[in-house]
């Protein structure tokens, strides 16, 4: 159970980075590369937390599958943003920002769901 709580703490901290780390006294993500990296880390942390919650019986198999589908969608948005960033076209910055916003919205919803199920 301790591992579950430490993983969830990591998720909360990573979402804090996305929302603005300056308030925590930490350097916020400045570049799109850093924002993508934080978001990929959040995807991983949420998946790990969901797997541990499933094992602990906190969420059902169906709910764990929903978390996986949602985090897959967030990862797809991040992958698209990463590809746009690599292309270095004139509109790549706005495309990356849009993809990051989509992924962050999904990840925030997944975190809220897990929290509502008692995964803290």
Write up this protein.
By secondary structure, the chain is mostly helical. The protein has a single domain, classed as Four Helix Bundle (Hemerythrin (Met), subunit A), CATH 1.20.120. It is elongated. The mean pLDDT is 84.
Features:
single chain; 120 residues; mainly alpha; Four Helix Bundle (Hemerythrin (Met), subunit A); 4 helices; 80% helix
In short:
With 120 residues, the chain is mostly helical. The chain has helices spanning 2-20, 32-56, 61-87, 92-116.
**Radius of gyration, Cα only, in angstroms?**
15 Å
Taken from the alpha-carbon principal axes, the silhouette is elongated
Q: What order do the SSEs take from the amino end to the carboxyl end, as H and E?
A: HHHH
Helix fraction? over 70%
**For the terminal residues, how far apart are their CA atoms?**
11 Å
Strand content: under 5%
- Count up the domains: 1
Number of strands: 0
Please identify the top-level CATH class: Mainly Alpha
Helices and strands in order:
Elements: H1 2-20, H2 32-56, H3 61-87, H4 92-116
Helix pairs in contact: 1-2, 1-4, 2-3, 2-4, 3-4
């Amino acid at each position: 159970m301790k591992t579950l709580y430490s993983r969830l703490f990591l998720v909360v901290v990573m979402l804090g980075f996305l929302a603005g780390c300056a308030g925590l006294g930490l350097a916020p993500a400045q570049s799109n590369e850093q924002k993508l990296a934080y978001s990929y880390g959040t995807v991983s942390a949420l998946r790990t937390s969901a797997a541990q919650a499933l094992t602990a019986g906190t969420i059902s198999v169906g709910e764990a599958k929903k978390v996986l589908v949602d985090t897959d969608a967030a990862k797809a948005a991040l992958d698209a943003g990463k590809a746009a960033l690599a292309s270095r076209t004139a509109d790549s910055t706005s495309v990356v920002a849009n993809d990051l916003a989509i992924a962050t919205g999904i990840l925030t919803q997944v975190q809220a769901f897990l929290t509502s199920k008692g995964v803290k």
